[in-house]
User: Fold this.
Amino acid sequence: MTASPQPALLPVLLAGALILLVVHTLGRFIYTPLLPWLVEDGLLTLRQGSEIASWNYLGYLLGALLAIRWHRLSQIRRCLPWGLLLHAVTTLLQTQASDPDALAALRLLNGLSNGLVFVQTPALILEWLARHNRAGASGLVYLGVGAGLLLSSAMVSASAGWLHGAARWWPAALLSLPLAWWGWRQLAQLDTPEHPPQAGHIAPSGRLLDRRSITLFLSYAGAGMGYILPMTFLPMLARLQLPPGSFLVGGSWLLVALATLGAPWLWNRLGGRLGDKRALQINYLVQLAGVLAALLLPGASGILLCALLVGSTFLGTVLLTQRLGRSLQPHQGPRISAALIALYSVAQLAAPWLTSQWLGHGGSLHSAFWLGAGALLWGFAWMFAVAERPAETPPPR
Assistant:
C-alpha cells in the first residue's frame, strides 16, 4: 500500500512555530510588556492588571480542558481552525476595549483559544513526527514562542510613542491574521492516521494518572506556578525598582525574548543527549536560580539575571515534559499533552491570583516572587521520582 505524500519537515515545523507565535506571544505574552503602558495610560491599575492576567490564565485552562475532551486527531483537525479564528476575533476586539471588565472578558476568550491551540498544534505535529521516527525534532516547534517574544517586545517598543490605551493591541491584531492563516494551511495537509502504530510494548491504559506519570504531573505543577510570576510581572518589577532612565525598565522583556530565542533548540538537544529527565532536572535548577536572583540580588543585577535565566529555560520545561509524558504513555500522546497543559495552566492561574491577593493586603510585588521560587523547588524535588524513559523507546536524537 503506497503512503500518501507528506509535507516536508521544515514547512510543518515552521507552520507550528508560527501558530504558537500567534496565540502564545501575540495573544498572551505581549500583555507583559504592554501592562506597564496600559497602567501608565490610566486604562488599568496594577491590581486590575493582575486580575485580568488571571482571567486570561483561566481561559487557557478551559482551552486545555477542551483539548483533553477533543484529543483525537480527527477532532484536533476540526478544532484548530476554529481556535485560531477565535484568537483573531478577540485580539481585534481588544483594540476597542477601553473598559477593564470588557478587556477581562476578551482576555478570558483569548486565553481559551490559546490553551486549545497551544495544546493541539504541538500534539498534532508530534504524532506526525513520531509516525516518521522524527519525534526528536518536536521541540523545534517552540522556536516560534522565542521568536514571538522578541517580536512582541519590538512591536510594543516601536509603537509605544504613537499608540495609546486599547489601541496598543493593533500591531498584534494585524499581524496575527496572515500568520495564523498560512500556518493552518500547512498543517491541514498532514495525513495522520487516527491510530498510528506505536513503538514498544507498553500496555494501553485509559488512565492519565498512574504510578509512572503522577510524579511528572506533580513536578509540572511547580513549573507552571514558578515561571509565570517573572513572565507576567518582570517589566513591572523593573519599573518599580529601577530609576526611569535604566535600560531594564523598558528592556527587561527584550532580554527575556533574546534568551528565549534559542532555548527550544538548546533544550531539545540536551534532552536528546542526556535524556529528557536529566535535562529537566538541570532546567529546573537554572530557572530557580533566575527567580532567586530577582529576590536576593539588588536592583538591576537581579532583574538582568532573572530575565536571562528564566527566559532561557521555561520553554525547555514545556517541550521536555511533553516529550517525556508521551514516552510514558505513548498510546495517548495528545491526551496526556492536554492534561499536562491543563495542570500547568491551573498553576499559572493560581500564581497571579495569589499575587493579586498579596498586593491587596499590602504586600509587595517583589516579595510575591518567593511563591515562584518555592514552586520551582517543589518541581525540582518531584523530578527525582519521575519514571525513566521505557528501555524499548530510545531517546530522541
Notes: The mean pLDDT is 84. The first helix runs from residue 9 to 29. The chain has 15 helices and no strands. The chain has one domain: 9-194+208-383.
